[in-house]
C-alpha cells in the first residue's frame, strides 16, 4: 500500500465532520487531501478545521484534478448516484452515505460497477456497524429465540428542524451547520423515511438475514413524510412492522426493536442501547458496552482497498434497502401493497 491512501470528501458538511472525518483522520492508512462543497465559506471552515489542503466547489473538478485513491460521498441524496458512478469510473474506492441511490436500478448499477472494476464500495448504514445489531443477528441466527414469528421496529425523534419545519438549534453538532436539503423532497428523495428510515430497513434485513418481498406503507404526507408506518413481508412468511416518527414533541430519542420467536423474544432499546434476551427461564440483559467491538464504516472500507475484503455495509445490502425504500414510497403514493 502507499504511505497513506489519499481521500477526498464530496459533501464537506456537518454530518461528514462528526461521523467520518474523525475516523479517517485517526486511521494511519488514510490521509484526507481534498474536500468539496459549493459554499466556499463553509468549505474553508471545514477544510481549515481538518487541515485539508485541496479545496473545490465543483465535485467533477475534484474527481478529475485531485490525486485520490478513494472518495467519501456525504452530499444531498439526489447526488449520490451520479457522484458514486463517476468516482468508480475514475478508479476510486467509494464510501457513501445512505441512501445508496433513489432507485433500485441505480443502486444495482453502482454495485455491479464496483464489482466489475474491483473497487471497495461501502454504504454507511448504521446497523452493520452497531454492536447490538450484530449481537442480535448472531443470536437470532443461532436460534436464541427459536423460529422468528414477527418483528417490530420503531423510532421516535425530534428532528423537525433538519426538515425546515422548526428553528435549527444553535447546539447542532458538527464543524459547520447542517443545510436544509432535507426540506426539499427532490433533493432528499422523499421525507423522513428516505433519510433516517433506511437505517430501520437496514436493521430489519441485517438482523433477520431475510430478503424483502413486499411492503405496504402509510405516511402522513407524501413525498415529504415526517411519520410513516409500514408492514413488510420477508422470506419465510415473516411479517415486520416499522414505525418512524421524526417530529415528536418529546426531545429524547426513543428506539425499540422487538424480535418475537417460537422460543423467546429479543428486545433492543436505546439510547444507550441494550439487548434483553427473554425466554420462559427469565431475562438476560446485555448493555452495548459489554458487547464486542465492530469495525467502523471507515475501517471496513479501507480494509477492502487492497484485500478485496467484503464489507459489512455491502453494495448488495444497499441495493436491498434502496429497493425497499422505493417500494415504500410507491405504496404510500398508490395506496396498495408493492412487491419489492
UniProtKB/TrEMBL annotation:
Domain spans labelled GFO/IDH/MocA-like oxidoreductase: 135-265
* GO MF term list: nucleotide binding; oxidoreductase activity
Record-linked Pfam families: GFO_IDH_MocA, GFO_IDH_MocA_C3
Keyword Oxidoreductase on entry:
yes
Q: Which key words are in the record?
A: Oxidoreductase
Q: Where is the Gfo/Idh/MocA-like oxidoreductase N-terminal domain?
A: 6-124
In terms of PANTHER family, this protein maps to: CONSERVED EXPRESSED OXIDOREDUCTASE (EUROFUNG) (PTHR43708), CONSERVED EXPRESSED OXIDOREDUCTASE (EUROFUNG)-RELATED (PTHR43708:SF5)
Give the family per the record.
Belongs to the Gfo/Idh/MocA family.
Report the protein name in the record. Answer: Oxidoreductase
> What organism, scientifically named, is this protein from?
Capsulimonas corticalis
